[in-house]
User: Which sequence fits this backbone?
């Protein structure tokens, strides 16, 4: 007698149609660069896209400093409203001259960005940096690139980073020419929650007209970004690092596992079903499905049971450096019966794939008991963000 598992997660599949956003919402966001120096000031914007008020905390993170003990300034941002903090480093944090980054935490998802600009003269000019969710930071093994840099008589280039974790982060920056030839390389260590800024000459390389900066995180987690400045006008241009659509950070974010977020997909046995998996901090924190059990070899619905299930482990299921994971758990029902799940899979290149074995017991019928067929599954990273 053969039994097939048919899993459906309709809400998750419908959610895949959600639009992508340029500014990504989150409850823990980092704006990787900000400064106040002379005529240069920074304005910070925090928008609440939700339908209820958000309690928001803003932290100032000075460069090259362990900011584990940083104290926030707290605000309430009502639904649909924007908090505007003009000359924020001075008016909110009381500093006449400083460079660093912002961390913004909230009890609801918000979006944020800042503008750094010169107030010298009758017109202003400057650049902006977007707030990046902590879940999109590069983790150990992850890498990204910043393109369009130059260091010559006409332009100068800078690179920035912020450590988004409570442990030190190590980043190796490698500068290459357009053909991929290495011009310079240097490794840096960032204290917890510290901001980082260097001119490209700090790498020790020659002048160049066009270059690409490769950033690889070897420990901890960080967000990186660049800037190209016109030497004649002083006008800067923000150069963002890249990441694949839907990934958890530049170049895969979370290293081999492909990044945090929501993965939605299907089983690929006789019938197509659905599966939802939540990955946070390189670990599985939630799975969901709705299983329909039946026995087609016995004429169809001999085991006509429908079981919705969700599993949130007490300890998240760690995803190994090579992206592999295993998970085993049971779902018990008050009406009787137990489903035992065994997952084996890998999370790489923004896809989750592997095998699912399911055992059914205590359902009140001999035909609703025993091991189900092994079912393969495949899921892709959605553009959804997590709301807690």
Assistant:
């Amino acid at each position: 007698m053969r039994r097939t598992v048919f899993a459906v997660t309709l809400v998750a599949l419908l959610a895949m149609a959600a639009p992508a956003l340029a500014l990504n919402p989150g409850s823990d966001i980092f704006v990787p660069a900000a400064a106040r120096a002379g005529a240069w000031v920074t304005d910070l914007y925090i928008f609440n896209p939700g339908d209820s008020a958000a309690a928001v905390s803003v932290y100032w993170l000075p460069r090259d400093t362990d900011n584990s003990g940083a104290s926030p300034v707290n605000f309430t941002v009502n639904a649909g409203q924007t908090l505007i903090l003009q000359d924020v480093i001075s008016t909110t944090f009381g500093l006449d001259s400083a460079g660093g980054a912002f961390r913004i935490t909230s009890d609801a998802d918000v979006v944020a960005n800042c503008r750094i600009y010169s107030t010298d003269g009758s017109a202003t000019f400057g650049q902006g940096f977007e707030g990046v969710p902590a879940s999109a930071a590069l983790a150990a093994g992850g890498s990204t690139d910043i393109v369009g840099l130059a260091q010559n008589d006409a332009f100068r280039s800078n690179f920035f980073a912020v450590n988004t974790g409570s442990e030190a982060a190590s980043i190796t920056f490698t500068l290459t020419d357009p053909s991929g030839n290495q011009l310079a390389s240097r490794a840096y260590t960032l204290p917890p929650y510290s901001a980082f800024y260097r001119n490209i000459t700090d790498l020790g390389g020659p002048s160049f007209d066009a270059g690409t900066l490769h950033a690889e995180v070897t420990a901890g987690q960080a967000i990186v970004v660049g800037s190209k400045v016109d030497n004649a006008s002083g006008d800067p241009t923000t150069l963002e690092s890249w990441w694949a659509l839907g990934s958890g950070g530049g170049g895969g974010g979370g290293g081999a596992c492909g990044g945090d977020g929501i993965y939605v997909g299907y089983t690929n046995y006789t019938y197509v079903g659905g599966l939802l998996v939540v990955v946070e901090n390189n670990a599985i924190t939630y799975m969901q499905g709705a299983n329909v059990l039946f026995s087609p070899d016995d004429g169809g619905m001999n085991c006509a049971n429908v079981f919705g299930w969700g599993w949130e482990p007490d300890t998240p299921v760690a995803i190994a450096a090579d992206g592999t994971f295993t998970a085993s758990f049971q779902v018990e029902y008050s009406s009787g019966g137990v489903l035992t799940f065994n997952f084996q899979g890998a999370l790489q290149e923004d896809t989750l794939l592997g095998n699912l074995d399911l055992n059914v017991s205590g359902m009140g019928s001999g035909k609703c008991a025993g091991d189900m067929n092994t079912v393969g599954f495949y899921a892709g990273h959605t553009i959804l963000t997590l709301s807690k």
About this structure: Helices lie at 10-15, 88-91. The chain has three domains: 4-16+258-381, 22-135, 137-244. The mean pLDDT is 82.
